[in-house]
Input
Amino acid sequence: RGAARIAENNTKQSKTGNLRCSSVVREVERMKEERERRRQLQAEQRQEKSALMSRDPGNPNWEVAMMVRQYRDTLAFKPLRSLSPRGARVQQITVCVRKRPMSRSELTNRNVDVISVPSPDSLVVHELRNKVDLTKFLEHHKFRFDYTFDEQCSNKLVYDHTARPLIRTMFEGGNATCFAYGQTGSGKTHTMGGEFLGKVQDCSTGIYAMAAKDVFIEMAKPEYRKMNTEITCSFFEIYGTKVYDLLHPDKPMLRVLEDGNQQVVVVGLTEMAVTKVDDVLELIELGNKERTSGKTSANAKSSRSHAVFQIGLYKGDSIHGKCSFVDLAGNERGADTKTANRQTRIEGAEINKSLLALKECIRALSRGSGHLPFRGSKLTQVLRDSFVGGKRNKTCMIAMIAPGLTSVEHTLNTLRYADRVKELIAKDEETV
Ligand code: ADP
Ligand code: MG
Output
């Protein structure tokens, strides 16, 4: 039977011989064309690569730069550039992200900017990944927040959308709190304390100072002028579980006590009465200097502590409302555990603990009731007033991110933390 089939096939083939011949020719031509097309494509890619490399010779990251650029070509950019005439939204909890520009050293090291901020409330992180066959590709992580600030946004624009809407809270008898969160070097101190001109910080350009200015503008309004009010400032640092007064020349360590009514008191904290913006600027400068003048490497030390700047509004002898601005310790500690020494590891654990407690406390604030885990860390303990009192209190978190390829892991951690703060709120609101 097998032989019969072969014979049959042979007859078929001979019948279709001419047909087959021309289809083979066609097939060969198609392959030739295909090969030609591939060659052309490769030539174009080589040309693009050499153009890129000649513009930027020896850049080891040219491929990532090219892929990011190709992705950006598909986006329509309409980033935040000005405050809307209606002003910023006032919400109980606002979560924003600020991307800083590439630093000079990042540019010299051919680091690639892998963050795109296409609109006022969205952001994309381009993460470099390898396929199983080791070819590179980008994974695009998309995030949404209340506001996203790109590298061109000024401190003023950030302030207008974050802390400024909270100033009224203090006059209405509430507590407003603004946090700067992110890895070391992402721009927390730049945003809160002011721009650096070399090593010198111009504190008039920071959120602390801009807030103080608006507090005095509000104070000058007729309804407050008549009252017996006073503005005070305090500035302290939380290093591990210890609290240090930054406005006292000896930078003493202070005790934190809780009275029978769960009121938390930082015993002996300097509260300076101020009557004008210049008074406040002087105090900020003093505190900033005190903060970074540690015996060990100043920046390393300040990155491991939380700095809290507070403006208090007193009516007579009792506190009416408060604004707190917190420059948090760098959040990169978790990853340090392999290399760090014992002391640094203990500090890192404390920082992680305080940042987790902070997230839980903001979540409790959004619920407006229930268990408030403020004793979870020194930070949340001293800020207890920020998390109780329900709708009267307002909180804003600015998550700072560095733009570079080499920071992607920390950047994603920061964004996921910020995302969870917001996500939890959305979920909680649904159940209210
Ligand atoms: P962090 O306090 O988070 O450790 P810094 O505020 O000290 O970070 O910023 C690190 C560096 O980046 C500083 O040299 C600062 O001047 C610079 N920088 C941060 N944010 C910006 C920005 N938005 N524009 C320009 N430079 C910035
Ligand atoms: Mg800092």
